[in-house]
């Protein structure tokens, strides 16, 4: 297979390295808005590179990985689809609902597979939780508790283009609770606050937020997010059922210390960020995309899934601003 990677910043370069080591990938071609960076990464991996993304799309690709800035996602997805090239794209599909819907409509009228990058679906813990729910081992699920707590804020320049904490950060939690439970969210109530750097407030965003989600079967989820969790990167999901409960992320690298006397757990070094926490999941995700390109597998995280998670995020942002519950009419 000949795979192209558009965008070789931190995550794009990691994806390129993963693809370079997959047995089924014979050729790798890289491109970036800064051609010098594409050349540098390509040279380190023994890959090819092009001066522009236009040249990359014309390079007779079997598959395309999109890891460019958010505002270019939709355009590259559609250009790949128009060329009958299977596409993997980091979330989100587009910066807004209108752009996302346009991509969903175009992909629906095509037979070209498009996979969206929600890597938690490829994490061993989340997979085990989903299997436990599906098998009925937890009984009926009544409560989920999840969250994404960043060890430190992203650069100030990123916040105004991030889409806000719900679309940028919590959207992963929104996707994974849908996936683990197999249920749809029908109502949200959310709140947020700023106690950190002024650049969050200046961008009309918040640095800490919480949301209560109501599912179509009456179950609830509480989702928390913050940019200030200096103890370490903390991403977990508790799934509580009538017969049993299960937790994802409850391992020795949990950045949380017990106040109970004599309790030593956890003792490991906390994860500093998402790349370290989900390294194995990212690699499985790209391996799955290679299988899709080869015709050995089908898409398991579609543009429709991305739209559903985005709608929950938008509803949470609206709820935060208007201080009221927001219904998601017709589910997702």
Automatic annotation (TrEMBL):
Record-stated family: Belongs to the Gfo/Idh/MocA family.
Keywords assigned by UniProt, alphabetized: Oxidoreductase
Any Pfam family hit: GFO_IDH_MocA_C3
Gene3D superfamilies: Dihydrodipicolinate Reductase, domain 2, NAD(P)-binding Rossmann-like Domain
Protein name listed in UniProt: Gfo/Idh/MocA family oxidoreductase
Superkingdom in the source lineage: Bacteria
Residues annotated as transmembrane: none
Domain Gfo/Idh/MocA-like oxidoreductase N-terminal: 1-118
Domain GFO/IDH/MocA-like oxidoreductase: start-end pairs: 126-246
């Amino acid at each position: 297979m000949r795979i192209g990677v558009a965008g070789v910043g931190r995550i794009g370069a990691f994806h390129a390295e993963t693809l370079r080591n997959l047995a089924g990938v014979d050729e790798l071609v890289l491109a970036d808005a800064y051609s010098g960076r594409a050349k540098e990464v390509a040279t380190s991996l023994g890959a090819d590179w092009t001066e522009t993304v236009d040249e990359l799309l014309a390079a007779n690709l079997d598959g395309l990985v999109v890891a460019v800035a958010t505002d270019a996602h939709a355009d590259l997805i559609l250009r790949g689809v128009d060329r009958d090239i299977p596409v993997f794209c980091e979330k989100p599909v587009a910066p807004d609902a209108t752009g996302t819907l346009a991509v969903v409509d175009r992909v629906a009228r095509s037979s070209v597979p498009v996979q969206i990058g929600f890597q938690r679906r490829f994490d061993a813990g989340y997979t085990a939780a989903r299997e436990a729910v599906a098998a009925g081992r937890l009984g009926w699920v009544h409560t989920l508790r999840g969250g994404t707590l960043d060890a430190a804020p992203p650069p100030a320049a990123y916040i105004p283009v991030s889409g806000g904490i719900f679309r940028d950060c919590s959207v992963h939690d929104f996707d994974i609770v849908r996936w683990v439970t197999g249920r749809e969210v029908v109502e949200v109530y959310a709140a947020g606050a700023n106690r950190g750097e002024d650049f969050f407030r200046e961008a009309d965003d918040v640095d800490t937020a919480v949301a209560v989600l109501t599912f179509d079967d009456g179950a609830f989820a509480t989702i928390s997010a913050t940019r200030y969790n200096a103890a370490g990167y903390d991403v977990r999901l508790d799934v509580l059922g009538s017969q049993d409960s299960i937790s994802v992320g409850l391992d020795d690298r949990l950045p949380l210390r017990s106040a109970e006397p004599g309790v030593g757990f956890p003792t490991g070094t906390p994860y500093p960020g998402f790349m370290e926490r989900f390294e194995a999941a990212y690699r499985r995700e790209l391996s799955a995309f290679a299988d899709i390109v080869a015709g050995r597998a089908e898409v398991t995280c579609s543009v429709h899934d991305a739209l559903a998670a985005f709608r929950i995020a938008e509803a949470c942002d609206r709820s935060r601003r208007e201080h009221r519950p927001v219904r998601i009419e017709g589910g997702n």
